[in-house]
Amino acid sequence: MLFKHVLKTAYDGVRAHKSRSILTILGIVIGIAAIIAIVSIGRGAQNLILKQIQGMGSKTIVVVPGREPRGPTDAAQVFSDSLKEKDLAALRKKSNVPDINEVAPVLFGGESAAYENETYRLTIFGSSELITKIMDVQLAEGYFFGEDDIKNHADVAVIGSKVKDELFGSSQAIGEKIKIKNRNFKVIGILAKKGQVSFFNFDETVLVPYTTAQQYIFGIKYFHRFIVEAKSDDVVDKTTRDIEATLRETHDITDPDKDDFFIETQVDLANRLSSITNILTYFLAAVAAISLIVGGIGIMNIMLVSVTERTREIGLRKAIGATKGNILKQFLFEAIILTSAGGAIGVILGTMISFAISIFLSKIMMLNWDFTFPISAALLGFAVAAAVGLIFGLYPARHAASLDPIEALRYE
Fold first, then answer.
1. Taking the model in full, what pTM does it have?
2. Is 143 in contact with 188 (CB distance < 8 Å)?
3. Residues 105-133 pLDDT 10s
4. How far is residue 372's CA from residue 362's CA, in Å, rounded to a whole number?
5. 286 and 147 in one domain?
6. How far apart are CA 139 and CA 152, in angstroms?
7. 7/193 Cα distance (integer angstroms)
């Protein structure tokens, strides 16, 4: 029996029971669609995170207090007070770190700001004017606070564009005062729309002098981060080593394993977050793939029922010359056609779902989200669907092929 005849017979067998065939492949469709959607969304999230990190520039180095987390038990080490004013002064000395272009201390935390009857929850970002250069943040109106404001712990603030809209609406904001922690801050500048840079949305941020943030808002004498800009990409590694040596000296640390700080470059952070998002994506995809097994079992069950219903047909075909191989191929191909069709529909459905989600996130949620079609996941999903049909269709096909033609013809 020619291959095309076997394939046509199998196709006719599937087509003869359309409703049952559709219900049979439903598990495969759901499984493949879920895998495609999860991988696509995972890739989109990864691209979004990488864009945010890259927004700080490849020359940016971040010094974080506490020991570098290497497991769940180390998580608490991140919340440390190890970065002090003496460390900032040491890093600013060219003799210690000659290739530093800029260094900005950073404090941050959530607070509420109020103006007249309006209140808005935002992020307080305490730093110096250098942070605008490192983060490439521009002013839309007004001016930025300077060194005198930092020395005098001035109650001045530069607000993000969304903060301005929420508190002042269309009214003038420059020169007005907003209240943060029962203290009045004069608005001296408004940031141009910037959105997300690294993990901060500057549109929803109020920037104040870091000395003011330390004394009046957070009540601390240490820093949450040092953000350092090297002179060029080529000296990032050398600058990192110089920072480590300088901080070990100010902290009296001789054993690097006892460092109470750690350093992140943008390349390191991007690689680390890429690994994390990949692991989460593949884990969720593996969970979704369980439905393929369930769908495969359903196909095997339906195929066994089909063999029972078509026992007389099998006996008749054998009586007129069909071999065991012909019967085996027919029922095996029926299972493969079902799962392959389910795989194709699942790929299309998963693509449509992920595209709709990307549109929602980019247009409605205003995220810089790109739609990504995972070609490798689509090909793999389609191949896995066909393999499921082959594996779970083999037993019913062998059962059909092994029927005795005489007994099959007598079957009622």
1. 0.57
2. yes
3. 999 999 999 998 899 999 999 998 888 87
4. 13
5. no
6. 23
7. 61
